[in-house]
Design a protein that fits this description.
The structure is a homotrimer.
Chain A lengths: L5 H10 L3 E5 L5 H11 L2 E3 L7 H7 L2 E5 L5 H16 L4 E4 L7 H11 L5 E5 H7 L15 H15 L2 E5 L3 E4 L4 E5 L11 H15 L4 H20 L5 H14 L2 H7 L1 E4 L1
Parallel strand pairs in A: 1-2, 1-3, 3-4, 4-5, 5-6
Antiparallel strand pairs in A: 6-7, 7-8, 8-9
Helix pairs in contact in A: 1-9, 1-11, 2-8, 2-10, 3-4, 6-7, 8-9, 9-10
InterPro entries (chains A, B, C): Hyethyz_kinase (IPR000417), Ribokinase-like (IPR029056)
Organism (chains A, B, C): Rhizobium oryzicola
GO molecular function (chains A, B, C): hydroxyethylthiazole kinase activity
Amino acid sequence: MQQTSPGSLLTALRADPPLVQNITNFVAMNIAANVLLAAGASPAMVHAEEEASEFAGIARALTINIGTLSAGWMKGMHSAADAANRAGKPWVLDPVAHYATNFRRQAVDALLAHRPTIIRGNASEIIALAGGTNRGQGVDSRDPVEQAQSSARILAKAHGAVVAATGEIDFVTDGERAFVIEGGSRFMPAVTALGCSLTCLVGALAAVFPTDPLVSSVAALTIFAVAGENAARQADGPGSFAWRFLDALSALDGPTLDRQARIRAA
Amino acid sequence: MQQTSPGSLLTALRADPPLVQNITNFVAMNIAANVLLAAGASPAMVHAEEEASEFAGIARALTINIGTLSAGWMKGMHSAADAANRAGKPWVLDPVAHYATNFRRQAVDALLAHRPTIIRGNASEIIALAGGTNRGQGVDSRDPVEQAQSSARILAKAHGAVVAATGEIDFVTDGERAFVIEGGSRFMPAVTALGCSLTCLVGALAAVFPTDPLVSSVAALTIFAVAGENAARQADGPGSFAWRFLDALSALDGPTLDRQARIRAA
Amino acid sequence: MQQTSPGSLLTALRADPPLVQNITNFVAMNIAANVLLAAGASPAMVHAEEEASEFAGIARALTINIGTLSAGWMKGMHSAADAANRAGKPWVLDPVAHYATNFRRQAVDALLAHRPTIIRGNASEIIALAGGTNRGQGVDSRDPVEQAQSSARILAKAHGAVVAATGEIDFVTDGERAFVIEGGSRFMPAVTALGCSLTCLVGALAAVFPTDPLVSSVAALTIFAVAGENAARQADGPGSFAWRFLDALSALDGPTLDRQARIRAA
């Protein structure tokens, strides 16, 4: 294993579990916390404006997801993002279905002003965020990840962020370097909030290796892809896939991860 | 398969997955989204007053559930119901435990004024909504569905809505025509929020066949009943039933559904 | 079985399922409701300030958990605790990560003024609540339950409450009498919100046997410990443990519980 391979970062995460603050949506909260626990991280769902900022000073990374946004929560998101920036901690933005309503578009614009370290979305979200025309419907992506690749590069350069466009094939770039990660399973889009959970895992890996958020993002996407592949082998449908995925995440170790990883420069 | 049989409506749903907006409770959000995904629909949990109305213009159906109601959410419910009505889209009301507190009773009265297309509740909820004396305790029904049948007919006529009273045996009526659907499993009331999830599926089928919400409701109840029966065959308890139910929903196809359906006019 | 053994209390709960009002966090809501249903109780997640107090008059016990607290919810918590006290019904406090932020510390202080019948926390929470120095990080405990035992005794005397410090080994005391309960599984801390769910079960057993909340708490902890042990036998990871735990809870009967119970006076 290389020192910054996905496997070594997973091993490092397990050796010193990072506390990750997640401001996520009501649908994702339980499964995202279980995904972080299975991976070995320590999740905390803390969003109230009264404490979001103070907690961001304690946590090693922050993730913000606008899935079930309301005006009250926006305050907690802004103060947490500010606090993470002040403390030099990485934070990840998940712009769920930001193209669907004015409220979401404005919320994402305001959050982008806080300069997220990493942006993670599905193809439709990344294309629309870069100003393109997408075919997203509600919260499900209908655009192939391949088409999102140029959008991701544009977005990364415009915002000085790492951008991950995930789907059947994952693509991640900092505007210069870029990687494609293969794996996963056809069951993944049929389990709600797995993408949101991946955003939280991206935060956990960024906490482990804040030096290079592109490298840490590759690790997070690879962990998801390999665990998804392993879980799918015995799953009969989305119900059995969901719990097998948590078992597979928990059973994954660093050397196995590196052996199964399918990453290539793009 | 007849053109409006449950099986053909399920096939139509899969061919063109409807986007369904659900304003539901915190307990139900995750399982309801997973139920819709397993059935083949595209769920969106959008409730904030800032966007609920705009989103109702995009979605093909709306469902409203008062399970964990608060004053702030009432605003989103009202503007979404208004927007669905203006756009001529079906909407479904789930009056969870509406008899338990004044706050709930008033909320349901106010929502009924928006003339829901379909009302789905358990026997206790339907009996109480029609003005009868029920034995409901908290959110669990303690009244047999049989007793709810005359209440459902009264309610349907009073509100010009389709009314579904579900439980061991399901009953659905538009005040004139009525059907009984058999199936399901004794494990279903032991899994929280399955009734709430059924409400969302009723919305999805109403989106697929808005012409006749009685027919689309029969389809939704039949899908649930057959998937429940199939899942129960291998389940050892409520925990294993829950994920097997999602697998069974996902594995169900139109012809199998029609073959297993137990529907009779009442 | 003794009349107040865990097994007889479980049998009594099944014979007359108590309605339990839970003001809990967004992560816990679904799994906590499923845990109560599997045990045989009737859960209701009712927290809005508009109805929390009225509902506390209907329910047989109340549980309050500050996991995803916000200012609006505090009002519902206070009025519900007041109503439970006025009606002479037991209520349980779960001070999730109360040491993490000022907002939480103040919230817990204010709730303690309502004199909870029972306080349930992990070792870090109980140590910090008694004024000690803990090693908690976010919401996960890093202190052994053994160290929490003297803190629990201090806390119980100071607040006239039963205090349960749970973890690998559970400890529960009313300040005079004390018991240790063994069992459970290493998978339990890897499933999010199982501790929060246990708090709700403590409430359910307090409803069944309000005369002696120490005895009812011992029963709740023993039910969890034995079901956890039984579920772990076939689990391969946290994902498969979670649903097997619900099956095991549901399959447990009074005599089996008493046979497997490992309780000793401390």
